Amino acid sequence: MHGWKMAMHSTSDSHRAAIDASSAQVADDEILTKLRQVLAGMGDGGRISASVYDTAQVLRFAQLPGDASAAYAWLLDKQRHDGGWGESDDPMHRLAPTIAAMLALHECACDVRYGAALNAGSVFLAQQDLSRLSVLPDDMPIGAELILPRLCAEAQEAGLDLRMTLPATLVATGAIRRDKLREMSATQAGSPALHCWEAWGDRPAAEMLGDDGSLGLSPSATAAWLNTARNSCFSRDSLRCATHYLHRATSGTGETAYGVVPCIWPLDLFESAYILHALAMGGLLQHPALAKPVSRAAAMLRNGITEQGAGFSTGLSSDGDTTAVAMAVLALIGTPLEHDPLRRFARGHLFMTYPDERNSSLSTVIHAVHALRLRGEPARASESYLWQRRHVDGLWREDKWHASWLYATSHAVAALSEGDIFSQRDLTLTGILMRQDACGGWGAAAPTFEETAYAVLVLVRLAGMQPSSWVLQESISRAFRWMREIDQSLARPPARALWIGKQLYCPIRVVRVIELTGLWVANRWLRQSDEIASGARPTHASQETS
Question: A GO BP term, please (predicted)?
Fold first, then answer.
């Protein structure tokens, strides 16, 4: 019998005393007010963390008007104590930001501190184990097979000693893809291939620029285009448009240093879809206190999705993942799409994020299954695939778009049919409970608010109302206290970057809504457990993912 079941009926006084139920009570209005404040900011293109990689590339290539000293200072400040750049503990997510930052500092060379920073960066790179990259893992950074060889070649030309060698498999795969991209006509504005143009392109064309002035919503690709376009016969309007895009992209991070940019911007459709999805996972999509901002976000999403689907924003081609999430939340709101753009991303029983991508994404298939189930369309083969992807410990991991197994697991549990997931829940419950940190939180590495919220959402969906489950009650109570303490902290640190792009990033508003939704769900579940235990009629607050 699984450990959590064995403890279901443990009602000893010492165990009960370990659960401070009173600490789990917090006014719902407080959480709802914070949610409304987050939702009120939507419509400005989206809020996202700053990118070391993209900022370094913009500093190298864009020649933005104005003083760039603050951006260089920001870049230097982001170097970690081990000499590298990037937040992850996985070296493959730190290579691109580290090499790009070193190139930017080397090419500027206007501060005596840069030399020490470059030496530390070289030492960091020499110490990294790059063996994972040789198998091209699903959770590899976007375009790593293109970006890393290009950066290494540029570093060699610049005389930088990187003290590292990329795996031959990665380099060979990148060369094949680069040749293919150069042969095909990937010049149309909005093409996903343009998002990594800085790593494969050398012939700029005016038609590559979107209406917003970007190449594939990418600051680094746009900066590289500007650098090559200045030496070609392009109109001043085109150059001005691209420069203006980079200027506006700096506003997406909330950073004060001019020239600091995100990895992608704008992301308004993505932000709307994922915020509504997070609210749905917590049963908040239909909450009357959020009716106005939810209605506004839904209208934004409905206006942005076409028969081809939805992408991060209108400046980038639609993708299967954002399309699936958008279709799911619109169905949950009660305004399902009349057309089905998702089918164009189907490849057998899988669903692709973009055409011609190297590998499918676990979370894209998860979201497609969810959207199709809500539309009443069969997807049994895809559901079977998801069950096959569950590991022996009951968890889903190795996703293409998020670095944490808690993200993939929580979204899989929300997407699969209630009957199927409940019949298979014990293994997943045990897997989650066994991985709770002593502090009360969860994390693939150190615990984070975001990942703890995912864990709470899984526990509540799988456990239902189990007033005698003291293991569950203690686990959720500990999680609530830890999340509550972080939420109330005056010196609350920024959310950790866990979403996979060219480097890891954080969609700030999306993650904040996930955090608050997890806090809300934990609070409500604990309150209802107390009410059931005392014989009172509980206040119902179901999740809306079914």
Answer: diterpenoid biosynthetic process
